[in-house]
Amino acid sequence: MIILRKATSADATFIAQHARRMLDFKLPGWRANEKDVMIKADINHLTKALQTNDENDSIFIAEDELNNALGFVRVNIQTDYFTGEQHVHVNDIVVTSEAEGKGIGKLLLAKADEWAKEKNVRWITLNVFDENLRARAVYEKAGYKIEWIKYLKEV
Question: Which of 59, 120, 121, 123 could make a disulfide contact with 7, Cβ separation 3.0–4.6 Å?
Fold first, then answer.
């Protein structure tokens, strides 16, 4: 049985240890040498979210019956650029390598959906690198659709 609970500061080590899983795919060429910088930034943002205790920025942990952490999801409220309407955004989602393929990602996304319904918003968003095909398949299976594509050019 898997339970989902709100993360506490006691989860900081687990989150930091597994944050690198968000970048566990072939990064685009212009980001390839920035992986360590990106992981550090992810850990900093997640740690700050744990410390602020903001009701509109939450991290949830998935655990098994033995209290082994299997993954986490961070969700927060953001404002739509076009309408000014608030929506929920999935900032980060990680499943440990040991728990991969066991439906933990699906459960974490369902928790994000539940949180969004509690916040009474109309939609939920997330970003994913184009090359992260495994994550994209999970998101599409969960009902997410591509809204727009970001382009980047090195100068």
Answer: 59
> Under DSSP, is residue 40 helix (H, G, I), strand (E, B) or coil?
helix
Instruction: Yes or no: say if 57 and 82 are a contact pair by the CB < 8 Å rule.
Output: no
Q: In which order are the strands placed within the sheet that holds 86-95? A: 3-6, 57-63, 69-79, 86-95, 124-126
Query: How far is it, in rounded angstroms, from Cα 130 to Cα 52?
Result: 31
Cα gap 139→23, rounded to integer Å: 16
Residues 6+ apart with CB under 8 A from 114: none
Pairing of strands 124-126, 86-95: parallel
Are 76 and 48 contacting, i.e. CB atoms less than 8 angstroms apart?
no
Mind listing the pLDDT tens digit for each residue in 37-69? 999 999 999 999 999 989 999 999 999 999 999
All domains of the chain in start order, with CATH: 3-141 (3.40.630.30)
**Whole-model pTM above 0.85?**
yes
- What confidence tens digit (pLDDT) does each residue in 105-126 have? 999 999 999 999 999 999 999 9
Give Cα 128 to chain centroid, integer Å: 10
